[in-house]
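Known limitations

Files may contain more than one protein. Parsers should not assume a single record per file. Below, a two-record file is shown to illustrate correct handling: read the sequence, read the token line, then continue until end of file.
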Amino acid sequence: MIRDFKTILTALAEEVQEHLQDCLKIEGIPLDLQKAMEYSLLAGGKKIRPVLCLSWGEMLGADRKELLHFAAALEMIHTYSLVHDDLPAMDNDDLRRGRPTNHKMFGEAVAILAGDALLTQAFFVMLGSSLPSERVLAACREVAAAAGPQGMVGGQCLDLMATGMGSMNLEDLKNMHALKTGALIRASCTSGALLAGDSADVHKAASYGTNIGLAFQIVDDILDVTGDEQTLGKPVGSDLSSDKSTYPKFLGIEQSKAMAQDSAELAKACLDEYHGPQKEFLKSLAQYIVDRIY
């Protein structure tokens, strides 16, 4: 089952990667900007957010090919957030996915513009979908909310304000990560449901996305303590050195692992009423997120 899951995950990620290459074949982009956009967008990764959109949409009856525009756009938004998060004014990271970060390669100014370009181009790509316009608009609204001040950007602001202050408690940490990390993961699931035209299933998709988003962040916090740079493709121990609040800091490693597994189980339970290969894939994906710590 694990082998089948990884095969499917790899195939979906490759399909998204091919589509992303087409998304940047646009006339009129300055060459330096295009290179910076491609450098981060095409750097690999498992493409979890677009895969979630594809899987939820297909499970609810949409054609996967018609979902690819939206799936690719989600990866563009995620990539923009990484480019900006790595900047000296934010997390000041030198490595991302085992390579120098965007600003180390192209300079801070071009990195900022590359992130801006990826974000705005993402909505251009989303709105090029051939699905019914009311579905596309509903899904776009969902993603915009998740990416903006009431989602990912707001969460990053809370993270910056809390770093080194020592004033955050566990509930504050959960709320912050629900915005910074969880919102776009949740929207990846709900946008798939909305694009399939199944608004009644959006609450199930949201609950699944919320729970795997929590599991994902807990695991990331654990790996920052227990992982290694070669495997992760970025420095470990950066949360500790920056005096950031993390789940291991509040709960310890073992209790954090248990919390991640509980979140994965809650996500799996959201799929009970569904059938088909996408259901089994999404269940395996929830567990795969947690299994990274073992």
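...continuing to the second record:
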Amino acid sequence: MTILYDMPLYRPPSEGNNLIVQATIGCSFNHCTFCSMYVTKEYRARPLDEVFADIDAGARDWPTAHRVFLADGDALTLPTDHLFEILDYLAARLPNLARVTAYATPKNLNEKSIEELAGLRARKLSLVYMGIESGATSILKRIMKGASQASHAKALARAREAGLKVSATVILGLGGKADWEEHVAGTAELVNQAPPTYLSTLQLDLEPAVYARFMERQEPGFEFQDDAGILAEQERLLSLMDPPSPVIFRSNHASNCLPLAGNLPKDRDALVAIVAAARAGVQPLRPRWIRGL
């Protein structure tokens, strides 16, 4: 027996070479207007016996697996005891297990106690992927994120206190041409207040299935940013970020017009210079035909 996934199956790019186990199906929130990942799925928590069977299959096929990603989009919404059982079973069946990861929402992190989060960390769930999208509360309301700058900051602080690393993402372009400065300023303010371990920027690119839903929540006359506008956002965002602890920064997701990599705040000026060169036409952009979601 091999694992039979409930498709479509999504995972962060960095989890592509790791064992994936679906602890849940879909996303319990599933209202973000820009996201098409789970629109075809109805959320459900998988019974433990189903999850254990998949772990058994994974252990037989890949007994040396040392990293596991818990899918789908909202595994951390499960009761903590339920997650403990999954993590304990993974450790029992995979002797080389070193790290477990999962997507997390601010709500997930804020609804669990620090002790519960620390318990997950003690069972090797050491990193969570969190979509910040924006630090501007007005933008977050518009995209129906179900979060605010304050709830984002609280979640990031709680994860840090519990010893969990956070890999956070921001979507450039969410404010459009009219509100990009508010989007960028709020995002920089959030990162400076509660820095994640890793921070990546993506570039807004909507699937046809969610285009109408996204536009329904926008102000009349909303205009999408072109590459020039995205570069202006990236340059401003980088110049405003001065986190009190180091943040590993990347913009290497396939959606981005300009791949970047560095550490903040140490490499901030160098990164800003690269973006400025791109805006001046000196630094080439990623060709459109190789960009994607």
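Parsers that stop after the first record will miss the second one. For reference, the second record is described as follows. Strands lie at 19-22, 24-25, 44-45, 67-71, 99-103, 125-133, 165-172, 198-203, 247-250, 261-264.
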